[in-house]
Every structure is written in C-alpha cells, then in structure tokens.
Amino acid sequence: MLRVQFEEDLEKLHNQFYAMGNEVLSQINRTVRAFVTHDRELARQVIEDDAEVNEYEVKLEKKSLEIIALQQPVSQDLRTVITVLKASSDLERMGDHAVSIAKATVRMKGEVRIESVEDAISKMGRDVKNFVEETLNVYLNGNVDQAYAVAAMDEKINQYFDDIRDLATEEIKQNPELIVTGRDYFQVISYLERIGDYAKNICEWVVYFETGKIIEL
C-alpha cells in the first residue's frame, strides 16, 4: 500500500512538472510575439503571469522535499525526485527570462526599430520555443539518445545569438541613433540564449534520471 501511494506521489510530481513546462512554453511564445509586434499589453500579461510559474516551482519543491523526508527514496526513486527539483528550477529561470523580454517590450516606446533584426529574433524565439517543447517531450519519454539529440539544438540557438548580434551591430554602425534600440536587442537575444541553456540542462537531468550519471551535453 505504501508503495502504491509513493508511486502516486511521483506521478503527481511528473504531472505538475509538465504543467509547469507548458505554462513556461506559453510565456516564451507570448513574450517573443509581444516583443516583435510591439504589444506592450501582452508583455504586461506575461509579467503578471510569472506568479503562476513561481507558484508551480514552490509547490514542486515542497512536494519533493516532503517525499524525501517521509518516504526516504533510494536509487531511481531518489533520482526521480532530484530530477524534478533541478529541472523545475531550470523552468523557473526560463520564466524569469521570458519576463525580462516582456519588460524590454514595455520599456521600448518610441525607438526606431530594425525590421531585419526583429525578423531574426522572431525566428530565434520560435526555435527556442521548439527546443523547450522537445525538451519536455524528452522528459516525458525518458529516452537518453533523444536527450542527446535534443540538447544539440542549443548549438543552433547559439548561432542565432551570434548572427543577430552581428546583424544589429552592423545596423548600428550605419546609424548610431539605433544604439538604444540595439541595447534592447542584445538583451533579448541574450535572454533567449539563456533559455536554450536551461533547456539543455533539463536534457542533462533526463540522462541523470535514466543512468545515474551527471554529464554535460
């Protein structure tokens, strides 16, 4: 009976984590859309909804620590709880970066925009969202080979960062009045790049969960 209850608790942990992941996915999608469409109202909504992501993390942390204290799990059961603890922290940080992008959207008012840069940021944001979505699928499936493959998507996100930074820099050289706009672009692509890093972290935690090995992908 105790084992049945324990497995039910673990299942609840997994479900809550996946729900948190979907909320973060929504945050990423909306914050990028708000930035490239200059929708400050949508950006404010993203900022307000961050409380929900934070609440998910608090609940997951509380439940995980409760399981450790009361059930004293070992082996793969313990790895399950540790994986949820660590991965939920990565999700929460993704949410924080989504909020930072939303704040940049609110901050930008009358600045001149660079259409080519914003088009590239839109594509980067789309692929970051896909990266996070694939990471959540890896978490659900627990496939180590797939975790390695999905983690490799981070290289594409890093390339976006380099390319957009170079593109924005060239535009600013041609028109120094774009320096303020460029600052916000550099911040936004930095936040997106960091979201990619945290997605890769979750892939690493999947490998740990399945193998017990802590590795760097």
TrEMBL record:
Asked whether the UniProt record includes Cytoplasm among its keywords, one would answer yes
Fetch the InterPro entries from UniProt: PhoU, PhoU-like_sf, PhoU_dom
Subcellular location, record wording: Cytoplasm
NCBIfam families from the xrefs? Answer: phoU_full (TIGR02135)
- Annotated PhoU domain residues: 20-104, 121-206
Please describe what this protein does.
Plays a role in the regulation of phosphate uptake.
Q: Which UniProt keywords apply?
A: Cytoplasm, Phosphate transport, Transport
Annotated signal peptide: none
Q: A Pfam family in this protein?
A: PhoU
- What cellular-component terms does GO give this entry? cytoplasm
Gene Ontology BP annotations: intracellular phosphate ion homeostasis; negative regulation of phosphate metabolic process; phosphate ion transport
Gene designation per UniProt: phoU
Its quaternary organisation is: Homodimer.
Which family is it part of?
Answer: Belongs to the PhoU family.
- SUPFAM superfamilies referenced in this protein's UniProt entry, alphabetically: PhoU-like
Name the UniProt record assigns to this protein = Phosphate-specific transport system accessory protein PhoU
Species source reads Streptococcus sanguinis SK115
Ion transport found in the keyword field: no
Major localisation: cytoplasm
